[in-house]
Amino acid sequence: MQLFHLFAFVAVAIAQDLSTKNVKDAFYKARIPQDTGINFNPTAVLEVAFPQQYNLPFLFHTGEHVPINSTTEPPMFSLLTGGSSSSRSQKANCTYSKDQKFVVTLFDPDANTPEDSTIAQVRHFLGGNFSPLLDHEFPSGINIPLPLVNSTPAVSEWVHPQPPPASGLHRYIFLAFKQPEGFDQQTLVTAQTSVLGWNLTHFAASVGLGDPIAGTYMLVSHEY
C-alpha cells in the first residue's frame, strides 16, 4: 500500500497545483475564508487523489468542477512543501519528517444549497495521525509530493459528496493542520457525532489546531 501511494503521486504529480499563492488566491476568489471564518495563509500545497477502479488516481486543480462519480472512494493525500514557487524545480522551503503528524478534513459549507446553507457545515471527513510516508530528504533542487499515511482510524469516516439534485455547485473544502498534542483525546467529534451543522473554526479553536497549513477545494454537483 505504501509503494502504491508513492508511485501514484509521483506518476501523476504534475496534474495538481504548484503554488501556495495560486491556491490562496483561489480560496479568496471563491470566498472560502470569508464564508467559513478560517485564516488561510498556506505554507504547503495539499494534493488529493481519488482512487479509480481501472485508471490512475484522479487529481484535480483547486476550484475544478469534479465529476461526482470520481469521488466515491476515500482519497489519498500528500503535501508539496516547496509550493511557494510556480515550479517544482525550486528547492523546498520547509521540511517535514515522518514524526510530524497532521489532521486532514473535508467539509461542505454549501448544504443544503449555496443559497440556503441551513445544514452546513457538513463534515465529510476528519482524520488525524497522518504523517509523511518518507522523510523529506530529496536531492537539492528536487521537490515531489510527500504522500501522507494515517496510523489510526479516521475520527469521522469518509462520506463522499452527495449534493442534492438541482442544488448547483457545492464547494468541498480540504484542509490540513499540524496535529497538536492531545488531539487523540478530543471528544467534540466522534464516530457517533452528527456530520450536519459542524463548525470547523469552533472545532479548530477548541482542540488547538491553529490555522490550516495547506488546503484545496473542488466543485461538485449532483448532475455531473
Description:
By secondary structure, this protein is of the alpha+beta class. Helix content is 15%, strand content 23%. The chain has four helices and eight strands, in the order H-H-H-E-E-E-E-E-E-E-H-E. It has helices at residues 2-12, 20-29, 32-36, 200-207; strands at residues 45-50, 58-59, 76-80, 102-108, 122-132, 146-150, 170-178, 214-220. It has an eight-stranded antiparallel beta sheet with strand order 2-1-3-6-5-4-7-8. The chain starts with a helix and ends with a strand. The model is unreliable at 1-15 and 83-93 (pLDDT under 50). Keywords: Signal. Residues 1-15 form the signal peptide. Pfam families: PBP. This is PEBP-like protein.
Write the layout of secondary structure elements.
Elements: H1 2-12, H2 20-29, H3 32-36, E1 45-50, E2 58-59, E3 76-80, E4 102-108, E5 122-132, E6 146-150, E7 170-178, H4 200-207, E8 214-220
Antiparallel strand pairs: 1-2, 1-3, 3-6, 4-5, 4-7, 5-6, 7-8
